[in-house]
Each structure stands twice: as C-alpha cells, then as structure tokens.
Amino acid sequence: MKKLLLVFLFIGPTVFSQQEDLQEKSFFSQELYMHLSDYNRKADLAYRFKDYDKAKELFENFTSDHLEGSYMDDFKFQSLKKKEVNLYDYKKPVFLITYASWCIPSKGEVPAINELASEYKDKIDFVVLFWDKKDKVKKLAEKFSSNISIVYVDESKNKGAYVVKQLKHSLGLPTCFLLDKDKRITDIRRSVFPPMQTDEETAYRENYIALETSISQNLVNEYEEVYADNIQVE
Fold this sequence. Notes:
CATH topology of the largest domain: Glutaredoxin
Radius of gyration: 20 Å
Order of helices and strands: HHHEEEHEHEHEEH
Helix content: 40-55%
CATH class of the largest domain: Alpha Beta
GO molecular function: antioxidant activity; oxidoreductase activity
Pfam family, one: AhpC-TSA
Number of strands: 7
Mean pLDDT: 86
CATH superfamily of the largest domain: Glutaredoxin
Protein name: TlpA family protein disulfide reductase
CATH architecture of the largest domain: 3-Layer(aba) Sandwich
Strand content: 15-25%
Low-confidence stretches: 4-10, 14-20, 226-234
Number of domains: 2
Number of helices: 7
Distance between the termini: 40 Å
Structural class: alpha/beta
C-alpha cells in the first residue's frame, strides 16, 4: 500500500497536469463544430447578394475569433514516397497550404512559396497538402521546390480523421494555416488573387509580401524566442 501511495505521489500530479493541459486546449475540429454552421449561414447570404466585401469580413472575423489560437488536430497523410506522415511529425513551426488539382493557385503564388521555403527552410517546415490522387499530385508537385514537403490525402482511401473532412470542405481552397511548433494556429489566410491582367512579377511580389509578412509576424519571432531559450538552458 505504501509503495502504491508513493507511485501516486510521484506520477499522479504529472498525469493530472497532462489531463488538465488537454482540457484547456481548444482544437480546430471542436471550434469548427461549434461555430461553422453560423458562419456558413451568414457567408452564404453575403455571397447570394454578391456582397464580397462582407463575405471577406465574415471569413476574417470567423477565423480570428474562433479558429486562430486553437490547436490543429493531428492527422495522417501520404508522401509521394508512399510513406504515411502525421502532421505532428513536423517539429518546427509549419506553413501548411491546401490545394487540389481542380483548384488553381493564384498567379505568382507558387514562385512566392518556393522563395519563402528557400529563405526559411531552417526555421519552418513548408507543407503543401493536396486533396487528390497520387498520380495527379505527382505532376503538380513538379512546380514546387525541393524545400517543400508535398503530401496528399486521397479521400476515397482515407475515411478516418474528422479533421480531414473539415480541412477540405469547411474553409474552401486554397487555405493557408500557420502553425507554431506546438501546432497552435497563429494565422489563417486565403490566397492573394491579383486581377487577371496583373503581370507575373507584380503578382509574385504581392503574394510574397502578403505571405512573408504573415510568416515573420506569426512564426519566425516565436521560433527565434524558443531557440534562444534553448541555447540559454544548454
């Protein structure tokens, strides 16, 4: 009995602390479950009346009020090397953007992401997630830098995690998620879509500036603070 009591004294507080941490965390899928239907109702109405400024405002308010600050659920996807990968396998902050073969990236977006991945590869894991079959993803992957992890989810074969369905169908494509090292969502943004007549260089610069600003404000500073703390501890 004394041995059991000692085990509880040493292990018990740790277990309860872990449980409390889990209870305090709000996850992406939970927030969507509680708030998505209300957002969809308002957004559908705005789009019906072609009030695109209102629709944009609703999206920004919805993501900032309910989704940013929550933790992205862990889920599985496939690499092009037929390896199953978990989101939480990435240990650095994550730049995650979702695409599909029927969803064309905005003009200048891919070159901007490639450039940012080259600049920040030591600090951030860049992940491009396609909702598609492997053969289509393999062709699309050729546009992206080797500094980017290209992964995919084939929904016809993956009927698992709830978050997989929600990621694809709730916020539209493409959507970019910035996650800190603990997978807490620090920013959610939609792609910049310059007017059709915009030249390639201008479109690239617009995308680069928008994405780099978000990265520097939401991921890099956080990473550098953690890195500095680790150096001091050592």
